[in-house]
Amino acid sequence: MRENCFALPDDYRPVVIQEFSDGEPIGSHWNFMSGQRHGGYWSKDQAFVDDGKLVIRTEYKNISGARGYHTGAVIWRENKFTYGYYEARCKVDLIKGVWSAFWLMPDHIGRGQGYEIDIFESAWNYFAESTLHWNSYKNQSKKRVFMKNLHRGYHTFALDWKKNGLVFYYDGAPVWRVDDPEGKINFPVSLWLSCEINGSVGRNGKPKVGRKWIGNGVVTDKRNRLPFDYIIDYVKVYDNGDLILSEF
Predict the structure, then answer these.
(1) Which of 242, 240, 204, 235 minimizes the C-alpha distance to 66?
(2) CB under 8 Å, gap of 24 or more: what pairs does 21-26 form?
(3) How far is CA 214 from CA 16, 109, 217, 234, in A?
(4) What does the alpha-carbon distance between residue 84 and residue 237 come to, in Å, rounded to a whole number?
(5) Which of 247, 99, 230, 104 lies closest to 166, judged by CA?
(6) In 3-state terms, what secondary structure has residue 153?
(7) Which among 58, 77, 166, 239 could disulfide-bond with 228, CB atoms 3.0 to 4.6 Å apart, if both were Cys?
(8) pTM
(9) pLDDT at 1
(10) Are 117 and 159 in contact (CB under 8 A)?
């Protein structure tokens, strides 16, 4: 174990342990997102379990008359969370224009309520990013972490969120500490796993792939670069002494 590597404290109590099993429907614990999203579509069929892992697949296809880039997003359906320890082990291959993420989302951030907490996002070549958004997305703070081996094998991304602050971990190493002495980051959030396509809505109302968003470019070769798989080995949530559970 590396120096300063995070070790889960003995008094942290498991609340969610998702080690994906073949034959167990994703819908037993997760809700699917569907519909147009930036430069592509979220489609239910693009999130599935294979070989004991959750796969969110991005590919160019026609689903129900919608031709374009289709990917997926799932939301934990059994609880919302305030505070707690969150961890996911996942694999993200190198591809341009596809944004994979493990994140926490409040219901009413558009009304200025709550913080979006992006534990891990990958839309770049050699670094991942953790971000806080608040005040109806007028404010944000972020940390970029350069990882030469980001697209090689599996990595673990985690957040320890307590009443007085947050600590983000990549492969067990602390990469970002956010102090919150006044306890302002305290709204219930939903737990998300997702991919999105770089782009926007075109004049015809359909997804337009382009550099209108973020990341290292756009998907340009739908034959050779796709399908792209965001593979999640497990997701875990622990009560770290501050966790509050609420109804979804």
Answers:
(1) 204
(2) 21/49, 21/52, 22/49, 22/50, 22/51, 22/52, 23/49, 24/49, 26/54, 26/74
(3) 31, 20, 8, 27
(4) 7
(5) 104
(6) coil
(7) 58
(8) 0.93
(9) 34
(10) yes
